[in-house]
Specification:
With 447 residues, this protein is of the alpha/beta class. It is globular. The chain has 15 helices and 15 strands. The strands form four sheets. It has a six-stranded parallel sheet, covered by helices on one side. Strands 13-12-14-15 form a four-stranded parallel sheet, with helices on both faces. A three-stranded antiparallel sheet has the order 8-9-10, covered by helices on one side.
Length: 447
């Protein structure tokens, strides 16, 4: 098992530029997903990795992409980076190995102080993602069991005073902490000069206690709440996952002082073209703008006025645009290629509940659209409010297809999302996607 965990660590570094350091954490959040996993889910805790182990892993990183520290996006439970006893030595060694590579660190902030912030500044470029969750120390202690809650609240101010490049985030739990606390926290992060603020609506599993559960209408209420609060602050505030159903390239926000801001792009503008090319989606508009030197944007403002603006920036330099995530055009190309190459007359495409409408809108633009049927797969293993592709398992997919087959013809090809599967092609319970192929006797591809 240890060899498998090591392979996960190196795979995370090689494919996602993620650098796992430790599963140790100095807080215990009531919304932490690691505490509420159903039986049979394969996730792993790791001890603090030694500086030598980290240096060996750094060799697998792509120096042209940001190094990601402190994000739990694999089967390894990632803890608080600054709880690692040798975190400062490790950060210095990363910078020596990768002199100009950006470093992204996600932290709960309670272990940040003036000395550490100064160290991070000396290692620039470093971006901090601060998970504050409440600007009220008493509320933060309540929801995170944080004995150093006041230090975390001060960390936001400390980062702002140092002119640091940082972003704030909040797990929204207004059913426990109240809407006023959420509003005060967002506005506090904005006053402390966060570049952007992400508001996550929490996901709870079927094992969550009653007090953690929220009404099904809460995500819509949260979306409306964020829409109102955007009027009170120039800092881009977004909800994740976003409740969007179309591919309209609408600007969710613009970072103050950025090339897009200086060019006059504002929240709510619609990007019609980048250098004359119409973007396929929000993601595409963001990519075209970021990857291009001095891009020329054709935009329509809220007053229905269409104009062209020039963003003065280098290729691959941040434009300052904040866009909600809909779909990467490369995903659509993979779908189209799979359908075309297979020659299948009937294709079944499985997706998460949250992505269904976006996928359908994307497929409307394909010549082969009439051959593809999209079915949303419910997260039955995790249950609760979980509706994401990354937490789907093989059994969820088989159940969704069996329900479909009871009413409709069997397809010639089944397409599965890649997010639920690791580098071995196995889901969170250890089952391979090839079991679907064997169980149903149908050709299956992962895209």
């Amino acid at each position: 098992m240890q060899n498998f965990v090591e392979s996960l660590i190196y795979w995370s570094a090689g494919h996602g530029n993620i650098l796992p350091l430790t599963s140790r954490c100095n807080v215990s959040c009531i919304f932490c997903s690691n505490r509420l996993n159903p039986e049979g889910v394969e996730v792993f805790n790791i001890k603090p990795r030694t500086p030598d182990q980290v240096r060996q892993t750094v060799e697998f990183l792509d120096p042209l992409r940001p190094v990601v520290i402190g994000e739990s996006v694999t089967r390894i439970n990632e803890g608080e980076p600054f709880s690692h006893p040798q975190i400062e030595e490790i950060l210095i060694s990363i910078r020596k190995a990768l002199p100009r590579t950006p470093i992204r660190i996600t932290t709960n902030g309670s272990l940040l102080d003036h000395r550490r912030v100064s160290l991070l500044q000396s290692l620039a470029p470093v971006t901090v993602y601060l998970s504050l969750n409440s600007a009220n120390a008493a509320v933060r202690r309540q929801i995170m069991s944080d004995s150093r809650a006041s230090y975390a609240v001060s960390a936001a101010s400390l980062l702002g005073r140092h002119g640091f490049d940082w972003h704030g985030s909040v797990v929204a739990m207004p059913h426990l902490t109240g809407w006023d606390d959420l509003r005060d926290t967002i506005l506090y992060l904005a006053r402390c000069n966060a570049k952007t603020i992400r508001v996550f609506w929490p996901g709870y599993t079927c094992l969550a206690p009653p007090e953690l559960r929220f009404p099904s209408s809460m995500p819509e209420s949260l979306r409306d709440f964020i829409g109102e609060i955007k009027v009170s602050t120039p800092v881009p505030v977004t909800m994740e996952p976003p409740l969007i159903n179309d591919l309209r390239s609408e600007v969710a926000g613009v970072i103050k002082g950025s090339p897009a801001h200086r060019a006059g792009v504002r929240q709510g503008d619609i990007i019609r073209a980048v250098n004359g090319a119409a973007p396929f989606s929000r993601v595409h508009a963001y990519q075209l703008t970021r990857n291009t030197a001095d891009p020329q944007l054709t935009i329509t403002s809220s007053g229905a006025v269409t104009k062209t603006v020039l963003l003065r920036k280098k290729a691959r330099e941040s434009s300052g645009l904040v866009m909600e995530y809909d779909i990467d055009p490369s995903t659509v190309r993979q779908i189209e290629r799979a359908v075309t190459v297979s020659g299948a007359n009937r294709v079944l495409l499985l997706t998460s509940v949250l992505a269904r409408n976006i996928i359908n809108n994307a497929l409307l633009r394909l010549k082969s659209r009439h051959f593809v049927t999209v079915i949303p797969v419910s997260n039955k293993l995790f249950g609760g409010s979980i509706n994401t592709a990354g937490l789907l398992v093989v059994d969820d997919m088989v159940a969704a297809m069996q329900d479909f087959f009871a009413q409709f013809h069997r397809p010639d090809l089944v397409l599965l999302p890649r997010a639920p599967f690791d580098h071995r092609g196995r889901d969170l319970t250890g089952k391979s996607w090839r079991e679907i192929e064997q169980h149903l006797g149908l050709p299956v591809q992962v895209i």
